[in-house]
Amino acid sequence: MIAALTGCMAQGGSDDSETTEQGVSTTYVDILDFEKTDQDQWYDAIHALNAQFNDECGDTYCEGDWSNIVPLTFGCSVSSKAGSVKDCVWTFAAAHGEVDAKNAAIVVDAPVFKCSIKMKTTAVKLAKLLSTADDKLRVTLPGAPAGATTIGEQLSDCFDHPLDYTPGTFSTTGTDKYVSARDYYTSSAGMDRWYAAKKALVAGFDRVCGDTFCGSDFGDLQAMDFTCAVTKSSGNVKTCTWTFGGSYHVTPEHGGLLDVTAKTFKCKVDVDGSLSKLIDTLVAPTIPGQPDAIRRPLPGFTTSAYDAIAACLP
């Protein structure tokens, strides 16, 4: 069940007094299951909201402890009769990987965030508001608490309360032999090649997710940090870790407070070869009929990044 956190999880607007003609207590449904919700309008609005967050994160929320916060799912529960919003939660994940310079272990800090978005309105009005507002993060929410009247203001407090925050520890004895792939190259050209390799992996995941991994309960899986430990003296890759975030919401029929599960997945990806060869493998142009970056055999193995995450993701 959802943990109660100051600023992150709290009850939203409701119409607890609503009863049926027989006096039966209010029941609740997911906003997408409410009969008057325009599903296309809702999906388009949330897609645009996610896009705005991604566009602005680097200059706002992502200037703090985590530079790559990604939005997962924005969901709401509403009363089944009137469609009054009971509870809304927007989930996020973040990941930051570091290499232990002494033993090549990859230490990944990958928190999640369950951000309650508080308001008092109806499903129809909320969908219309978010679909028509030019600035969805800063539009005033009906019935929102004073001092936190917009989605953006409510997120600011939520990101101060990470869940599953595990920064890990590093070795204090021995010599520094290893470095993260992002720090191996000192030239801009080398760094650009590494980022292009990571971009190719993410693009490959996005292409296959809808028909594979995103068909599970975690339908909003997002690829995040990809970190490799590299031997400084030789440039050989010791190991890699690819981190993902995902969540899902369940609306209890009674009570209406969303039951939210949000998790990150740290997937080991085996490589036995130089960083340069790994990058060459991932950035090579895709030939029709041949596998793209995520399905290409990795240096030293017959298996691919796809095979590695298939054994790790739900």
Question: How would you characterize the overall build of this protein?
Answer:
This protein has 314 residues and is α+β, with helices and mostly antiparallel strands. It has seven helices and eleven strands. The strands form three sheets. Strands 7, 8, 9, 10 and 11 form a five-stranded antiparallel beta sheet that branches. The chain has a four-stranded antiparallel beta sheet with strand order 1-2-3-6. Strands 4-5 form a two-stranded antiparallel sheet. The protein is elongated. The two termini are 19 Å apart. The N terminus is likely disordered.
Summarize, please.
This protein has 314 residues and is of the alpha+beta class.
List the keywords.
five-stranded antiparallel β-sheet; 314 residues; single chain; alpha+beta
Please describe the topology of this protein.
Blueprint: E1 28-30, H1 39-57, E2 70-79, E3 85-93, E4 96-99, E5 106-109, E6 112-116, H2 123-132, H3 151-158, E7 178-180, H4 181-184, H5 188-209, E8 222-231, E9 236-250, E10 259-269, E11 273-274, H6 275-283, H7 305-310
Antiparallel strand pairs: 1-2, 2-3, 3-6, 4-5, 7-8, 8-9, 9-10, 9-11
Helix pairs in contact: 1-2, 5-6
- What's the assembly state of these chains? single chain
Total of DSSP H or I helical runs spanning 4+ residues: 7
Report Rg.
22 Å
For the largest beta-sheet, the strand count, sense and barrel status come to:
5 strands, antiparallel
The number of domains: 1
Termini Cα gap: 19 Å
Principal-axis shape: elongated
How many β-strand runs?
11
Q: Write the element-wise H/E pattern from the N-terminal end onward.
A: EHEEEEEHHEHHEEEEHH
Give unreliable regions as ranges.
Answer: 1-17
Q: Indicate the percent of residues in helices.
A: 10-25%
Structural classification: alpha+beta
Q: Please state the average pLDDT score.
A: 92
